[in-house]
Amino acid sequence: MGNPHSHGAQCSHDAPQKNGQEECHDESKRDFIFISAASMAAVGTGVVAWPFVATLGPAKDTLALSTTEIDLSHIQEGQAVTVMWRGKPVFIRRRTAQDIELARKVDSDAATFNNLRDKQKDADRVKQSTFGGKEMPQWLVMVGVCTHLGCVPMGQKSTDMHGDFDGWFCPCHGSHYDSAGRIRKGPAPHNLAVPTYTFLSENRIRIG
What is the distance between the alpha carbons of residues 157 and 149, in angstroms, rounded to a whole number? Predict the structure, then answer.
C-alpha cells in the first residue's frame, strides 16, 4: 500500500480522480506555503545577519584613534613632545647634532655596539625614507613606555633626569636609555619601541 502522505500515490493512482484532484490541490497549496515560509526565513536570516556582520568591523571612533597626525613645525631643536596614540604616550624628539653624533658613535664602536642588550643601530631607529630627497635623522619617534614593567620614563623635559647616557631614565627600577632610545643599563630587556609612522611632508608625520 502506498504512503497516504506520498505526493505521487495520492495524486496519480490510489485515490479517486475527484478526491485526487482535491488532495493534489491541497498538497500543492501546502508545498507552496512550505516553500514560501522557507524562503521568507532565509531572507529574514540574511536581513538579521547583515547588521550583525557589520558590527564586527571596528567602530569609526576606533579607526580614528588608530592613526594620528602630528605637526612637527613648532618643535625646536633639542625639544621633545609627548602625544597619545592608542592609549600610549609617544615620545617625539627633535635631536641636536650632538644627540645624533652620540648615538652613532655607539654604532661605530664595535665593542660598545656588541655589548648592547638589544642591538640596533641608530640609523635603523629613525625613518630612513627621505622626503624631498632630504634625510631626517633628527626626528626620533618612540613609544614612551619602559620595556621592563611599562612605566613612563623621564627625559622629555629639559629639567628631567636623562640617565647616564643622555637619553631617558625610568626611575621605577633604574633603566637608562641612550639618545637613540636604546637600553644601556638597568633591568629593561629591550629598546623603547619605534611605532609605525610616515612622513606626510617635511614637517608632518602620521603615526599608525
Answer: 22
Nearest to 166 by CA among 111, 91, 109, 95: 95
Cα 147 from chain centroid?
19
Active site residues: 173
Instruction: Give the pLDDT confidence of 7-42 residue by residue, as tens digits.
Output: 443 444 444 444 555 554 555 565 655 555 554 554
Model-level pTM?
Answer: 0.69
The one-letter amino acid at 1: M
Which residues 6+ apart lie within 8 Å of 125 measured at CB?
A: 140, 142, 180, 181, 182, 191, 194
d(CA 51, CA 62): 18
175 forms bridges with which residues in the sheet? 170
pLDDT at 95 over 90: yes
Contact (Cβ atoms closer than 8 angstroms) between residue 204 and residue 83: no
Burial of 107 (0-12, 13-18, 19+ CB in 10 A): middle
Residue 44's pLDDT is: 46
